[in-house]
Amino acid sequence: MKQIEVSRATMGRIPTYLKYLKSASHISENISATALAKQLGLGEVQVRKDLSSVSGAGRPKTGYNIKELIDTLEKFLYTDKNNNVVLVGAGKLGRALLDYRGFEDYGLKISAAFDIRCKDTDMSKLGKPIMPMESLDEFCRENNVRIGIITVPAEHAQEVCDRLISDGIRAIWCFAPCSLNVPDEVTVQYENMALSLAYLNKKIDFQQKDDIE
Amino acid sequence: MKQIEVSRATMGRIPTYLKYLKSASHISENISATALAKQLGLGEVQVRKDLSSVSGAGRPKTGYNIKELIDTLEKFLYTDKNNNVVLVGAGKLGRALLDYRGFEDYGLKISAAFDIRCKDTDMSKLGKPIMPMESLDEFCRENNVRIGIITVPAEHAQEVCDRLISDGIRAIWCFAPCSLNVPDEVTVQYENMALSLAYLNKKIDFQQKDDIE
Protein backbone atom coordinates (compact mmCIF):
# COMPACT_ATOMS: atom_id res chain seq x y z
CA MET A 1 0.00 0.00 0.00
CA LYS A 2 1.22 3.41 -0.97
CA GLN A 3 1.51 5.46 2.20
CA ILE A 4 2.03 9.07 1.28
CA GLU A 5 0.46 12.05 2.95
CA VAL A 6 -3.17 12.33 1.87
CA SER A 7 -5.19 15.52 2.34
CA ARG A 8 -8.07 15.73 4.77
CA ALA A 9 -10.43 16.58 1.89
CA THR A 10 -9.38 13.45 -0.03
CA MET A 11 -9.85 11.35 3.08
CA GLY A 12 -13.32 12.80 3.53
CA ARG A 13 -14.32 11.56 0.08
CA ILE A 14 -13.07 7.98 0.51
CA PRO A 15 -16.23 6.71 2.30
CA THR A 16 -18.25 8.12 -0.64
CA TYR A 17 -16.05 6.30 -3.17
CA LEU A 18 -16.28 3.07 -1.18
CA LYS A 19 -20.05 3.24 -0.89
CA TYR A 20 -20.47 3.67 -4.63
CA LEU A 21 -17.80 1.09 -5.60
CA LYS A 22 -19.43 -1.53 -3.39
CA SER A 23 -22.79 -0.96 -5.06
CA ALA A 24 -21.14 -1.14 -8.50
CA SER A 25 -18.95 -4.19 -7.84
CA HIS A 26 -21.62 -6.72 -8.82
CA ILE A 27 -22.44 -4.87 -12.07
CA SER A 28 -18.98 -4.34 -13.54
CA GLU A 29 -15.40 -5.48 -13.06
CA ASN A 30 -13.64 -2.23 -13.87
CA ILE A 31 -14.38 1.46 -13.63
CA SER A 32 -12.64 4.52 -15.06
CA ALA A 33 -11.97 7.66 -13.03
CA THR A 34 -14.16 9.48 -15.58
CA ALA A 35 -17.14 7.20 -14.93
CA LEU A 36 -16.67 7.35 -11.17
CA ALA A 37 -16.51 11.15 -11.24
CA LYS A 38 -19.69 11.33 -13.34
CA GLN A 39 -21.60 8.96 -11.04
CA LEU A 40 -20.67 10.91 -7.94
CA GLY A 41 -21.02 14.41 -9.42
CA LEU A 42 -17.36 15.18 -8.70
CA GLY A 43 -14.68 16.73 -10.92
CA GLU A 44 -12.66 14.21 -12.94
CA VAL A 45 -9.34 15.83 -12.02
CA GLN A 46 -10.26 15.62 -8.34
CA VAL A 47 -11.18 11.93 -8.55
CA ARG A 48 -7.95 11.07 -10.42
CA LYS A 49 -5.93 12.98 -7.84
CA ASP A 50 -7.73 11.37 -4.89
CA LEU A 51 -7.35 7.82 -6.20
CA SER A 52 -3.76 8.22 -7.34
CA SER A 53 -2.74 9.58 -3.93
CA VAL A 54 -4.03 6.45 -2.20
CA SER A 55 -3.90 3.71 -4.77
CA GLY A 56 -1.80 4.77 -7.79
CA ALA A 57 -3.05 5.39 -11.33
CA GLY A 58 -5.69 3.24 -13.05
CA ARG A 59 -4.76 1.11 -16.08
CA PRO A 60 -5.05 2.79 -19.49
CA LYS A 61 -8.44 2.12 -21.13
CA THR A 62 -9.79 -0.28 -18.45
CA GLY A 63 -9.32 2.06 -15.46
CA TYR A 64 -9.44 0.52 -11.99
CA ASN A 65 -10.37 -3.04 -11.06
CA ILE A 66 -13.26 -2.35 -8.69
CA LYS A 67 -12.53 -5.15 -6.19
CA GLU A 68 -8.85 -4.18 -5.97
CA LEU A 69 -9.73 -0.52 -5.54
CA ILE A 70 -12.19 -1.29 -2.73
CA ASP A 71 -9.49 -3.36 -1.05
CA THR A 72 -6.89 -0.58 -1.32
CA LEU A 73 -9.23 2.15 -0.11
CA GLU A 74 -10.38 0.03 2.82
CA LYS A 75 -6.81 -0.80 3.80
CA PHE A 76 -5.99 2.88 3.71
CA LEU A 77 -9.00 3.89 5.77
CA TYR A 78 -9.02 1.12 8.32
CA THR A 79 -5.39 1.15 9.39
CA ASP A 80 -4.30 -2.37 10.36
CA LYS A 81 -2.82 -0.92 13.49
CA ASN A 82 -4.49 -0.74 16.84
CA ASN A 83 -7.11 1.99 16.52
CA ASN A 84 -8.10 2.26 20.16
CA VAL A 85 -9.10 5.68 21.37
CA VAL A 86 -9.89 6.80 24.91
CA LEU A 87 -11.78 9.85 26.07
CA VAL A 88 -11.26 11.77 29.31
CA GLY A 89 -14.16 13.86 30.63
CA ALA A 90 -17.55 12.16 30.36
CA GLY A 91 -19.71 15.28 30.48
CA LYS A 92 -22.39 15.92 27.88
CA LEU A 93 -20.05 16.43 24.95
CA GLY A 94 -17.84 13.54 26.04
CA ARG A 95 -20.79 11.15 26.24
CA ALA A 96 -22.13 12.32 22.87
CA LEU A 97 -18.75 11.59 21.28
CA LEU A 98 -18.41 8.26 23.12
CA ASP A 99 -21.62 6.95 21.53
CA TYR A 100 -21.22 8.70 18.15
CA ARG A 101 -21.63 6.04 15.46
CA GLY A 102 -20.02 8.04 12.64
CA PHE A 103 -16.49 7.01 13.71
CA GLU A 104 -17.21 3.50 12.43
CA ASP A 105 -17.11 4.79 8.83
CA TYR A 106 -13.39 5.20 9.40
CA GLY A 107 -12.85 1.99 11.36
CA LEU A 108 -12.38 3.89 14.61
CA LYS A 109 -14.01 3.55 17.99
CA ILE A 110 -13.70 5.15 21.38
CA SER A 111 -13.05 2.14 23.61
CA ALA A 112 -13.70 3.74 26.97
CA ALA A 113 -14.25 7.05 28.72
CA PHE A 114 -12.73 8.15 32.03
CA ASP A 115 -14.06 10.72 34.43
CA ILE A 116 -12.98 12.09 37.78
CA ARG A 117 -16.61 12.04 39.00
CA CYS A 118 -16.92 8.33 38.22
CA LYS A 119 -16.34 6.09 41.24
CA ASP A 120 -17.31 2.70 39.77
CA THR A 121 -17.38 1.65 36.14
CA ASP A 122 -20.59 2.88 34.54
CA MET A 123 -21.94 2.20 31.06
CA SER A 124 -22.97 4.62 28.31
CA LYS A 125 -26.29 4.19 26.51
CA LEU A 126 -24.55 2.09 23.85
CA GLY A 127 -22.72 -0.01 26.46
CA LYS A 128 -19.29 1.65 26.38
CA PRO A 129 -17.51 1.67 29.76
CA ILE A 130 -17.11 4.94 31.68
CA MET A 131 -14.38 4.32 34.24
CA PRO A 132 -12.75 6.08 37.21
CA MET A 133 -9.54 8.02 36.51
CA GLU A 134 -7.56 5.46 38.56
CA SER A 135 -8.05 2.94 35.75
CA LEU A 136 -6.75 5.19 32.96
CA ASP A 137 -3.03 4.36 33.02
CA GLU A 138 -3.49 0.60 33.06
CA PHE A 139 -6.16 0.71 30.35
CA CYS A 140 -4.00 2.79 27.99
CA ARG A 141 -0.96 0.57 28.44
CA GLU A 142 -2.79 -2.75 28.17
CA ASN A 143 -4.67 -1.69 25.06
CA ASN A 144 -1.79 0.19 23.48
CA VAL A 145 -4.05 3.21 23.01
CA ARG A 146 -2.73 5.74 20.47
CA ILE A 147 -5.24 8.59 20.69
CA GLY A 148 -6.70 10.47 23.66
CA ILE A 149 -9.69 12.79 23.46
CA ILE A 150 -9.82 15.56 26.06
CA THR A 151 -13.29 16.88 26.95
CA VAL A 152 -12.53 18.16 30.45
CA PRO A 153 -12.73 21.89 31.39
CA ALA A 154 -9.79 24.00 30.13
CA GLU A 155 -8.20 24.32 33.59
CA HIS A 156 -7.69 20.54 33.84
CA ALA A 157 -6.71 19.90 30.21
CA GLN A 158 -2.92 20.17 30.61
CA GLU A 159 -2.87 17.80 33.57
CA VAL A 160 -4.94 15.21 31.65
CA CYS A 161 -2.76 15.71 28.58
CA ASP A 162 0.47 15.08 30.55
CA ARG A 163 -0.98 11.91 32.00
CA LEU A 164 -2.12 10.60 28.61
CA ILE A 165 1.33 11.25 27.17
CA SER A 166 2.99 9.38 30.03
CA ASP A 167 0.60 6.50 29.22
CA GLY A 168 2.06 6.31 25.72
CA ILE A 169 -0.53 8.24 23.74
CA ARG A 170 0.68 9.61 20.38
CA ALA A 171 -2.06 12.10 19.52
CA ILE A 172 -4.49 14.32 21.42
CA TRP A 173 -7.83 15.60 20.19
CA CYS A 174 -8.60 18.52 22.48
CA PHE A 175 -12.06 20.04 22.91
CA ALA A 176 -11.05 22.28 25.81
CA PRO A 177 -10.50 25.94 24.82
CA CYS A 178 -6.80 26.07 25.74
CA SER A 179 -3.30 25.62 24.38
CA LEU A 180 -1.46 22.45 25.40
CA ASN A 181 2.28 21.96 25.87
CA VAL A 182 3.35 18.65 24.34
CA PRO A 183 6.62 17.09 23.18
CA ASP A 184 7.41 17.28 19.43
CA GLU A 185 6.46 13.68 18.74
CA VAL A 186 2.89 14.13 19.99
CA THR A 187 0.29 15.57 17.60
CA VAL A 188 -2.46 17.82 18.94
CA GLN A 189 -5.64 18.71 17.11
CA TYR A 190 -7.88 21.35 18.67
CA GLU A 191 -11.64 21.53 18.29
CA ASN A 192 -12.98 24.81 19.63
CA MET A 193 -16.76 24.57 19.22
CA ALA A 194 -17.46 28.06 20.55
CA LEU A 195 -14.91 29.65 18.23
CA SER A 196 -16.32 27.74 15.25
CA LEU A 197 -19.80 29.10 15.87
CA ALA A 198 -18.53 32.60 16.61
CA TYR A 199 -16.47 32.63 13.44
CA LEU A 200 -19.45 31.50 11.38
CA ASN A 201 -21.48 34.32 12.94
CA LYS A 202 -18.78 36.86 12.01
CA LYS A 203 -18.67 35.52 8.45
CA ILE A 204 -22.28 36.69 8.00
CA ASP A 205 -21.26 40.22 8.97
CA PHE A 206 -18.24 40.14 6.64
CA GLN A 207 -20.47 38.91 3.83
CA GLN A 208 -23.12 41.56 4.49
CA LYS A 209 -20.37 44.17 4.30
CA ASP A 210 -19.20 42.72 0.96
CA ASP A 211 -22.78 42.88 -0.32
CA ILE A 212 -23.08 46.57 0.61
CA GLU A 213 -19.74 47.66 -0.78
CA MET B 1 -15.64 49.89 15.15
CA LYS B 2 -13.28 48.76 12.42
CA GLN B 3 -14.97 45.87 10.64
CA ILE B 4 -12.41 44.19 8.43
CA GLU B 5 -12.03 40.48 7.97
CA VAL B 6 -10.33 39.02 11.04
CA SER B 7 -8.75 35.56 11.02
CA ARG B 8 -10.17 32.67 12.99
CA ALA B 9 -6.91 32.42 14.94
CA THR B 10 -7.09 36.09 15.97
CA MET B 11 -10.69 35.66 17.02
CA GLY B 12 -9.71 32.67 19.12
CA ARG B 13 -7.25 34.80 21.10
CA ILE B 14 -9.66 37.66 21.85
CA PRO B 15 -11.25 35.99 24.92
CA THR B 16 -7.70 35.52 26.30
CA TYR B 17 -6.88 39.21 25.76
CA LEU B 18 -10.16 40.25 27.36
CA LYS B 19 -9.66 38.06 30.40
CA TYR B 20 -6.21 39.52 31.05
CA LEU B 21 -7.18 43.13 30.29
CA LYS B 22 -10.09 42.95 32.73
CA SER B 23 -7.80 41.71 35.48
CA ALA B 24 -5.28 44.48 34.68
CA SER B 25 -7.79 47.34 34.33
CA HIS B 26 -7.76 48.24 38.03
CA ILE B 27 -3.94 48.25 38.21
CA SER B 28 -3.06 50.39 35.22
CA GLU B 29 -4.68 52.78 32.74
CA ASN B 30 -2.66 51.86 29.68
CA ILE B 31 -0.84 48.84 28.33
CA SER B 32 1.62 48.39 25.48
CA ALA B 33 1.39 45.52 23.00
CA THR B 34 4.84 44.48 24.25
CA ALA B 35 3.68 44.17 27.85
CA LEU B 36 0.49 42.35 26.84
CA ALA B 37 2.47 39.86 24.74
CA LYS B 38 4.86 39.23 27.61
CA GLN B 39 2.08 38.67 30.13
CA LEU B 40 0.30 36.18 27.90
CA GLY B 41 3.39 34.38 26.56
CA LEU B 42 2.52 35.35 22.98
CA GLY B 43 4.71 36.82 20.24
CA GLU B 44 4.77 40.64 20.14
CA VAL B 45 4.22 40.73 16.37
CA GLN B 46 1.19 38.50 16.75
CA VAL B 47 -0.35 40.66 19.47
CA ARG B 48 0.22 43.87 17.47
CA LYS B 49 -1.36 42.26 14.41
CA ASP B 50 -4.34 40.90 16.35
CA LEU B 51 -5.09 44.20 18.07
CA SER B 52 -4.59 46.36 15.01
CA SER B 53 -6.94 44.17 12.95
CA VAL B 54 -9.76 44.74 15.44
CA SER B 55 -9.01 48.04 17.13
CA GLY B 56 -6.31 49.95 15.24
CA ALA B 57 -2.79 50.74 16.47
CA GLY B 58 -1.98 51.77 20.04
CA ARG B 59 -0.68 55.25 20.79
CA PRO B 60 3.12 55.76 20.64
CA LYS B 61 4.75 55.32 24.07
CA THR B 62 1.52 54.89 26.08
CA GLY B 63 0.09 51.98 24.05
CA TYR B 64 -3.58 51.15 24.47
CA ASN B 65 -6.03 52.61 26.96
CA ILE B 66 -7.16 49.42 28.70
CA LYS B 67 -10.80 50.39 29.20
CA GLU B 68 -11.16 51.50 25.57
CA LEU B 69 -9.49 48.34 24.33
CA ILE B 70 -11.81 46.14 26.42
CA ASP B 71 -14.76 48.04 25.00
CA THR B 72 -13.59 47.62 21.39
CA LEU B 73 -12.79 43.93 21.76
CA GLU B 74 -16.14 43.24 23.43
CA LYS B 75 -18.01 45.13 20.73
CA PHE B 76 -16.21 43.08 18.11
CA LEU B 77 -16.90 39.77 19.83
CA TYR B 78 -20.46 40.33 20.94
CA THR B 79 -21.97 41.62 17.72
CA ASP B 80 -24.80 44.08 18.51
CA LYS B 81 -26.94 42.21 16.05
CA ASN B 82 -29.38 39.47 16.91
CA ASN B 83 -27.27 36.44 17.76
CA ASN B 84 -30.02 33.85 17.94
CA VAL B 85 -29.11 30.36 16.84
CA VAL B 86 -31.39 27.34 16.42
CA LEU B 87 -30.47 23.68 16.26
CA VAL B 88 -32.31 20.94 14.38
CA GLY B 89 -31.83 17.35 15.54
CA ALA B 90 -31.87 16.92 19.32
CA GLY B 91 -29.99 13.63 19.51
CA LYS B 92 -26.98 13.21 21.79
CA LEU B 93 -24.68 15.57 19.94
CA GLY B 94 -27.48 18.10 19.44
CA ARG B 95 -28.32 18.12 23.14
CA ALA B 96 -24.66 18.40 24.12
CA LEU B 97 -24.30 21.46 21.87
CA LEU B 98 -27.61 22.95 23.08
CA ASP B 99 -26.36 23.03 26.68
CA TYR B 100 -22.69 23.80 25.89
CA ARG B 101 -21.71 26.82 28.00
CA GLY B 102 -18.62 27.76 25.97
CA PHE B 103 -20.66 29.69 23.40
CA GLU B 104 -21.26 32.39 26.02
CA ASP B 105 -17.58 33.41 25.76
CA TYR B 106 -18.51 34.77 22.34
CA GLY B 107 -21.90 36.20 23.29
CA LEU B 108 -23.75 33.45 21.46
CA LYS B 109 -26.47 31.09 22.55
CA ILE B 110 -28.57 28.38 20.99
CA SER B 111 -32.10 29.62 21.70
CA ALA B 112 -34.00 26.42 20.94
CA ALA B 113 -33.69 22.96 19.44
CA PHE B 114 -36.18 21.25 17.13
CA ASP B 115 -36.66 17.56 16.58
CA ILE B 116 -38.98 15.43 14.50
CA ARG B 117 -39.37 12.98 17.41
CA CYS B 118 -40.55 15.76 19.72
CA LYS B 119 -44.35 16.01 19.98
CA ASP B 120 -44.65 18.59 22.77
CA THR B 121 -42.13 21.18 23.88
CA ASP B 122 -39.58 19.55 26.15
CA MET B 123 -36.76 21.12 28.15
CA SER B 124 -33.01 20.40 28.11
CA LYS B 125 -31.12 19.94 31.38
CA LEU B 126 -30.27 23.66 31.36
CA GLY B 127 -33.85 24.65 30.57
CA LYS B 128 -33.56 25.31 26.82
CA PRO B 129 -36.73 24.44 24.85
CA ILE B 130 -36.73 21.40 22.54
CA MET B 131 -39.70 21.88 20.22
CA PRO B 132 -41.59 19.95 17.52
CA MET B 133 -40.57 20.63 13.90
CA GLU B 134 -43.95 22.30 13.29
CA SER B 135 -42.80 25.26 15.41
CA LEU B 136 -39.54 25.83 13.51
CA ASP B 137 -40.68 28.27 10.81
CA GLU B 138 -42.57 30.58 13.15
CA PHE B 139 -39.73 30.56 15.72
CA CYS B 140 -37.07 31.48 13.14
CA ARG B 141 -39.13 34.32 11.68
CA GLU B 142 -40.28 35.77 14.99
CA ASN B 143 -36.78 35.72 16.45
CA ASN B 144 -35.00 36.75 13.25
CA VAL B 145 -32.66 33.76 13.64
CA ARG B 146 -29.46 34.04 11.57
CA ILE B 147 -27.75 30.68 12.15
CA GLY B 148 -29.03 27.11 12.00
CA ILE B 149 -27.14 24.09 13.33
CA ILE B 150 -27.90 20.78 11.62
CA THR B 151 -27.36 17.65 13.74
CA VAL B 152 -29.78 15.32 11.95
CA PRO B 153 -28.64 12.19 10.05
CA ALA B 154 -27.03 12.89 6.64
CA GLU B 155 -30.07 11.68 4.67
CA HIS B 156 -32.30 14.39 6.17
CA ALA B 157 -29.75 17.23 6.19
CA GLN B 158 -30.63 18.78 2.79
CA GLU B 159 -34.33 18.87 3.60
CA VAL B 160 -33.66 20.60 6.94
CA CYS B 161 -31.20 22.97 5.27
CA ASP B 162 -33.78 24.02 2.61
CA ARG B 163 -36.34 24.68 5.29
CA LEU B 164 -33.95 26.76 7.40
CA ILE B 165 -33.04 28.84 4.36
CA SER B 166 -36.70 29.45 3.54
CA ASP B 167 -37.06 30.63 7.16
CA GLY B 168 -34.45 33.34 6.50
CA ILE B 169 -31.34 31.73 7.97
CA ARG B 170 -28.03 33.20 6.71
CA ALA B 171 -25.54 30.53 7.79
CA ILE B 172 -25.58 26.78 8.41
CA TRP B 173 -23.28 24.84 10.74
CA CYS B 174 -23.59 21.26 9.54
CA PHE B 175 -22.55 18.22 11.61
CA ALA B 176 -24.04 15.67 9.19
CA PRO B 177 -21.44 13.99 6.96
CA CYS B 178 -22.82 15.30 3.64
CA SER B 179 -22.52 18.10 1.12
CA LEU B 180 -25.33 20.69 1.09
CA ASN B 181 -26.66 22.67 -1.87
CA VAL B 182 -27.24 26.27 -0.82
CA PRO B 183 -27.64 29.62 -2.59
CA ASP B 184 -24.53 31.84 -2.86
CA GLU B 185 -25.60 34.20 -0.09
CA VAL B 186 -25.78 31.40 2.52
CA THR B 187 -22.58 30.36 4.28
CA VAL B 188 -22.07 26.70 5.23
CA GLN B 189 -19.50 25.44 7.70
CA TYR B 190 -19.06 21.67 7.98
CA GLU B 191 -17.98 19.84 11.11
CA ASN B 192 -17.19 16.21 10.32
CA MET B 193 -16.26 14.67 13.67
CA ALA B 194 -15.49 11.24 12.26
CA LEU B 195 -13.17 12.67 9.61
CA SER B 196 -11.39 14.82 12.20
CA LEU B 197 -10.60 11.78 14.34
CA ALA B 198 -9.66 9.64 11.33
CA TYR B 199 -7.34 12.34 10.02
CA LEU B 200 -5.66 12.66 13.41
CA ASN B 201 -5.18 8.89 13.43
CA LYS B 202 -3.57 9.01 9.97
CA LYS B 203 -1.28 11.84 11.05
CA ILE B 204 0.33 9.45 13.55
CA ASP B 205 1.15 7.04 10.70
CA PHE B 206 2.53 9.84 8.54
CA GLN B 207 4.65 11.03 11.45
CA GLN B 208 5.93 7.53 12.23
CA LYS B 209 6.95 7.24 8.57
CA ASP B 210 8.81 10.56 8.83
CA ASP B 211 10.59 9.32 11.95
CA ILE B 212 11.79 6.17 10.16
CA GLU B 213 12.91 7.91 6.96
Short note summarizing the structure:
Chain A is α/β, with parallel strands linked by helices. The first copy, chain A, has helices at residues 8-24, 33-40, 44-55, 66-77, 92-98, 136-142, 154-166, 193-212; strands at residues 30-31, 64-65, 84-88, 109-115, 122-123, 129-132, 147-150, 171-174, 187-190.
Describe this structure in words.
2 copies of one chain form a homodimer. Chain A has 213 residues and is an alpha/beta fold. The first copy, chain A, is built from 8 helices and 9 strands. In chain A, the strands form 2 sheets. Chain A has a 7-stranded mixed β-sheet, with helices on both faces. In chain A, strands 1-2 form a two-stranded antiparallel ribbon. In chain A, helix 2 crosses helix 3. Chain A is globular, with a radius of gyration of 21 Å. The N and C termini of chain A lie far apart (52 Å). At the A-B interface, helix 1, helix 5 and helix 8 of A face helix 1, helix 5 and helix 8 of B.
Features:
homodimer, alpha/beta, Arc Repressor Mutant, subunit A, Rossmann fold, seven-stranded mixed sheet, two-stranded antiparallel ribbon, 16% strand, globular
